[in-house]
Structure formats: structure tokens, C-alpha cells
UniProtKB/TrEMBL annotation:
InterPro entries: DUF4442 (IPR027961), HotDog_dom_sf (IPR029069)
CDD domains: PaaI_thioesterase
Protein name: DUF4442 domain-containing protein
SUPFAM superfamilies reported in the protein's UniProt record: Thioesterase/thiol ester dehydrase-isomerase
A Pfam match: DUF4442
Organism: Streptomyces sanyensis
Length: 156
């Protein structure tokens, strides 16, 4: 992904690119519904092979869904910085709020303005920034929340 850049409408979308290059995304059949610098929305289809003991999506599948949504927004917001820095998650915390059943969706948002993060990178720092992810079921109930901290590690 070091050569990733902003893509034109003729090229694969960021979601299609991630689905093609990240094996776990393909394994879980994650669907990219929206991927912008402001918001990333991914869906985990209801798949019995990934159910837990209460017939909902396994916690590991929901973690992967949320982490993948966070990565998508990070690449959408900071893809133009990949020539000088690599994005890496540093910590993640997930809270399971309600039982999830059926299709679940993860919506990721940046916890800091992207311009502030880039300004720190420009100043020679290694910026850190939170990404907040809400996991919801089809009725709109929040089943889980993830807070994940990312960094842009300068190359070199």
C-alpha cells in the first residue's frame, strides 16, 4: 500500500482496493458502503460460519469489521501522505453494548481534524489520532463501539 494514491473515477475505489488486497476483508466478505475522509461505513453480512454461541456475529468478526472501517477512513483521509509516512494502529478498545444479530454495520469517524494531524507530520512529529467506530445492527441499535488510536509513522 506504500504506492497507494488518490484514485480517479476510472480506477478501483478504495473499498474495492482494500477488499482485493487485505485477505481478512475478503475472508469475512466485508462490504464497503462509503469511504471518504469524513466517514467510512462497512457492512458485515449475516454469515452462519462466523456466528457465536448466541447466533450473532462472533466478537472477532465485529472487531475486524470495526478495525477495517477505521483503516478505510485513515487511508481515505491520509492516502496522500503515504509517500512520507505509514499509518499504523497503536491501540484499540472495543465495548460490546448489545447482542448483535443479522447484518451489522460499522461507521468510522476521525476524532481529530485531518489538517491538524498533517500539520504535526509537517512539523516532524509522529502524530497520533483517534478513530471512533460505532457498530450497529439493522434496527439502528448500537451493538458495539471501538476507539482505536492510529499514528502516521514518518518514513526513514
Amino acid at each position: 500500500m506504500g504506492n497507494m494514491r488518490r484514485m480517479s473515477a476510472d480506477e478501483k475505489s478504495l473499498g474495492e482496493l482494500l477488499a482485493a488486497t487485505v485477505p481478512m476483508v475478503k475472508t469475512l466478505n466485508l462490504e464497503y458502503l462509503e469511504t471518504t475522509p469524513e466517514r467510512a461505513v462497512l457492512r458485515l453480512p449475516d454469515q452462519p460460519a462466523y456466528h457465536n454461541h448466541v447466533q450473532g456475529p462472533h466478537a472477532g468478526a465485529m472487531f475486524t469489521l470495526a478495525e477495517s472501517a477505521s483503516g478505510a477512513i485513515v487511508l481515505a483521509a491520509f492516502g496522500d501522505q503515504l509517500s512520507r509516512a505509514v499509518p499504523l494502529p497503536t491501540t484499540a478498545r472495543i465495548d460490546f453494548r448489545k447482542i448483535a444479530r443479522g447484518v451489522v454495520t460499522a461507521t468510522a469517524t476521525l476524532g481529530r481534524p485531518a489538517a491538524d494531524v498533517v500539520a504535526e507530520l509537517d512539523a516532524g512529529e509522529r502524530p497520533e489520532f483517534p478513530v471512533n467506530v460505532a457498530i450497529t445492527r439493522e434496527d439502528g441499535a448500537v451493538t458495539g463501539e471501538m476507539d482505536i488510536v492510529w499514528t502516521l509513522r514518518p518514513n526513514g
